[in-house]
Design brief:
By secondary structure, the protein is of the alpha/beta class. The chain is built from seven helices and seven strands; from the N terminus they run E-H-E-H-E-H-E-H-E-H-E-E-H-H.
Length: 175
C-alpha cells in the first residue's frame, strides 16, 4: 500500500468512480472527488492530498488548468491532467502550467500508476531542493562576513546584509 492520498477532479461521475476504484486497487487513498475547478480548489485546501488527478475540461466557469495553477501556487500540490482532448492549443496551455503529467483518456492503470509514482517522486525531489536552497539562503544571510553570490554570467544573484552594508547597495540594486 502506498499510503498516498489522491484527489480526483472529474465532472463525469461514472469516470470519477472508475478512477477511484482503480486508484484504490493500486493502494492509493482517494481523499475526495471534485466536479468543478472551484470545488477542486476548496477540497485541495481542506484535504491537502499528496497529488491531484485533474480533468482539464470541467463544467463551470473555471477549467482544470486554471484550477491546477491556483492549487499549485497556494498549496504546492502536484497535478496530473486527465483529458480526452489532445488538441495543440490545450497541450500548449497545459505545458505552461505547473503540471507533473498529462494522460489521455482512456488510459490504462499501469500508465496511470507510473505517471503518479513519477510525479510524486519528482515533487519530493523538487521539495528537497527548495528546502536546501532555503536553508542555504538562511545561512548566507546570517553570516557576518559579506557574501555576494553571482551566476556563471557574472551577474549578482544574492547579497547578504553584511555585503549590503559594505557596498552601500541594497540587494535589489545590485541585482
Amino acid at each position: 500500500m502506498t499510503g498516498k492520498s489522491v484527489l480526483i477532479v472529474e465532472d463525469e461521475c461514472i469516470i470519477a468512480t472508475d478512477i477511484q476504484f482503480s486508484l484504490e486497487g493500486m493502494g492509493y487513498e482517494v481523499c475526495g472527488q471534485a466536479s468543478s475547478g472551484e470545488d477542486a480548489i476548496e477540497k485541495a485546501l481542506r484535504l491537502s492530498p499528496d497529488i491531484i488527478l485533474m480533468d482539464i475540461n470541467l463544467k463551470g466557469e473555471m477549467d482544470g488548468i486554471v484550477a491546477a495553477d491556483i492549487i499549485y501556487q497556494t498549496n504546492n500540490i502536484p497535478v496530473i491532467y486527465l483529458t480526452a482532448n489532445s488538441n495543440e492549443q490545450l497541450l500548449e496551455r497545459a505545458k505552461h502550467s505547473h503540471a507533473y503529467g498529462y494522460l489521455l483518456k482512456p488510459f490504462d492503470e499501469r500508465e496511470m500508476k507510473s505517471m503518479i509514482e513519477l510525479s510524486l517522486e519528482k515533487h519530493e525531489f523538487e521539495s528537497q531542493i527548495h528546502r536546501k536552497r532555503d536553508w542555504l539562503t538562511t545561512i548566507l544571510r546570517s553570516i557576518t562576513d559579506a557574501v555576494i553570490v553571482s551566476g556563471n554570467n557574472g551577474n549578482i544573484q544574492m547579497m547578504n546584509p553584511s555585503a549590503e552594508r559594505l557596498t552601500g547597495w541594497s540587494e535589489a540594486e545590485a541585482i
